[in-house]
């Protein structure tokens, strides 16, 4: 399923969400200019679990903190950046509208941090750089599920009458869409556990960790807001 838009107009202009999309895109175009240097760039600014393990074990004197944040703005190709920014564009504006700019920014970065360490726990000795905004965006999806479960997501879905050979556009409830999305991440995460840290690919546990954190963050925010209004 590919989300195209939601039938859930935001009340305010989502300036912060658009800035995040712009920054991610700008960094990606910079990556394109690097040519063969891109691999070294990923190893320097992506999050390499093995390097962090060396740092926390005391075997490396160099702090390894900055890549936790810079890795969130790196992408490995056109499909990677377009897919992530599409999800952020469709789901991010309403979450920003609900949380406000500071609350949304906090959600984004905290989700990204949790996502990094969710994947790190699975493969702490991996020497493959972790890159991408998908962990942070997964947190946005989790918050969207809590705030707008009944919203309709206009999506491109496989047509069952053609056994998935063709696609059609259909409205899907946010609850159903995001539940299926999370279930797929969980299934693929479990299926790839034997290969964790040994080969490249999608960091499914980063998605899972970010999403779960986003759900918890939104529930706490909503509960706190309800308490303040009593």
What do these coordinates show?
The structure is a single chain. With 230 residues, the chain is mainly alpha-helical. It has eight helices and three strands; from the N terminus they run E-H-H-H-H-H-H-E-E-H-H. The chain has a single domain, classed as Rhomboid-like fold, CATH 1.20.1540.10. It has a three-stranded antiparallel sheet. Helix 6 runs parallel beside helix 8 and helix 7 runs antiparallel to helix 8. The model has no long low-confidence stretch (mean pLDDT 92). Pfam families: Rhomboid. Keywords: Hydrolase, Membrane, Protease, Transmembrane, Transmembrane helix.
Please give a quick description of this structure.
The protein is mainly alpha-helical.
Secondary structure elements and their pairing?
Elements: E1 2-6, H1 15-32, H2 38-45, H3 49-56, H4 66-70, H5 78-122, H6 134-147, E2 152-158, E3 167-173, H7 174-191, H8 204-228
Antiparallel strand pairs: 1-2, 2-3
């Amino acid at each position: 399923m590919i989300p195209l838009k939601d039938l859930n107009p935001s009340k305010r202009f989502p300036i912060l969400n658009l800035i995040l999309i712009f920054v991610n895109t700008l960094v990606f175009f910079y990556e394109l200019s690097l040519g063969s240097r891109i691999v070294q760039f990923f190893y320097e600014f992506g999050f390499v679990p093995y390097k962090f393990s060396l740092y926390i074990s005391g075997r490396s004197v160099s702090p390894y903190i900055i890549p936790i944040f810079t890795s969130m703005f790196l992408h490995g190709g056109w499909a990677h950046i377009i897919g992530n920014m599409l999800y952020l564009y469709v789901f991010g504006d309403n979450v920003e509208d609900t949380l406000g700019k500071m609350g949304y920014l906090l959600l984004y970065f905290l989700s990204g941090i949790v996502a990094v360490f969710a994947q790190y726990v699975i493969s702490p000795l991996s020497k493959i750089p972790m890159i991408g905004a998908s962990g942070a965006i997964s947190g946005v999806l989790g918050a969207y599920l809590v705030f707008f479960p009944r919203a309709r997501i206009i999506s491109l879905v496989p047509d069952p009458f053609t056994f998935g050979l063709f696609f059609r556009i259909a409205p899907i409830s946010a609850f159903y869409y995001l539940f299926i999305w999370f279930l797929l991440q969980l299934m693929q995460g479990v299926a790839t556990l034997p290969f964790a840290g040994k080969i490249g690919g999608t960091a499914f546990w980063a998605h899972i960790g970010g999403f779960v954190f986003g759900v918890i963050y939104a529930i706490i925010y909503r509960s706190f807001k309800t308490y303040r209004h009593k």
